[in-house]
Amino acid sequence: MQSSSQSCGIDLGEAELCQTDISDKVQQEFQSAEFGDERLTDRLMQVGNRLGRAPAESIPNACEDWASTKATYRFCDNERVDPDEILSAHKREQHSRVCDSEELLVVSDTTELVFPRHPSKEGLGDIGNSGMDLEGVKVHSTIGVDPQTHHMTGVIDQQSLIEDQQANTKHDANGKDEPIELRSEQKKWIRGDRQASDWLAEDIRPIFIHDRGADAFAFYHEVTGDLDAGFVVRASQNRCIQTPSGTDARLINWSEDLPEQGRTSIEIKQGNGRKARKATLAVKAGSCELLPPKNDTTHTDPVEVNVVRIDELGHQDDPIQWVLLTTESVAGFSDSLSVVESYRARWIIEDWHKVLKTGCRIEERQLETWERMEVLLSVYSVIAWKVLELRKLARGDIRRSPEALLSETERSILETKFPELTDSGAQAYAIAVAKVGGYLDRNSDPPPGWETMWKGLKKVQTWAEGYELHS
Of 288, 303, 312, 362, which cross-links 320 as Cys (Cβ 3.0–4.6 Å)? Predict the structure, then answer.
């Protein structure tokens, strides 16, 4: 039996280890932004530095003085500052993290942002249903994930989707440019994927990783026909197929009888009322053709796909059952396991969403309009990527030298406070930072969260600044 694990390791070169301060790394992501005024690029780096050092704090608390706070608000309100350009600068830096890869996992998902502390914000849309009147914005983001390490490389695309249910219209806010009307919210998947495909170098093949929301025949047809790419998508529909023997069938039903290739196990994290557990899975695989829907006159040819079916064994309460459609090989058990691991990389975007909401508290920001909020969202989206990386470091999910987290002065201060740290690895230093932030580190305690990590890091940085000023 082969088993899978959610943990992964990353070996970094000397260049990455020279990045000794995380807030500086956030600044670096913004250094190539072009607003037609170098002062605005400088201001963006200052805003990224201040908000990045205290992502859970309010803007006034993070900026620490009224002049910096006012400058941050003015930056978000400046007509020249386009959130798309902020993310474009981040994407230019991201190129260096993916340029040596042959493939990149491109993961997309949608989250809803509501603003309970500022519900009168202008420019929001309807995200409620017939039984609940709720205003907010649906943000559909696309991120890069290294296929070998499952390390998030950064944010590739972001669409702010605003709906007027009464008028039955949807549009992409589209930064400071004219809004883009959308015929269907379903288009968000292929729009994000096209952005990723156009951004990547020609010799890097994207593999699109999506959950059930992307299960649409038009998506499979477009990816296989127009893009030199692969996909792994979890099926939601028991759609019509043609089997290798030439008979018609239904996908979900047919996949039950596929031959079992082997069994594996994965760790299921606690969440949404679910207890953490180790799940044993039966892995089945096969191939079929997806038939075009009868009501779709634009597509007439079937799409050939491979299928991996996962069934959890021995668990009666809401067991795992996935039917994964893919372009990737399923010829052997190891091939199918690779498909499953690629799909599991989708959970990284869920963790990033949690950091954006809980670690960076994006829904508590009280700017008056969505146009200003979209600028702030682009900044915090990059900060959330770095916060997620820091948490992974503290939990031992990635391997790095302590120099990747802390400056020499900061390490010295921690070694004075915690003498046992000397010559330890980065995880031990990260745990020490968390303890400064209030983490108790008892045997029964879960790993430290991002808020505790950043509270501790801010204290350590303040101590180091004071030491350096008086030395």
Answer: 312
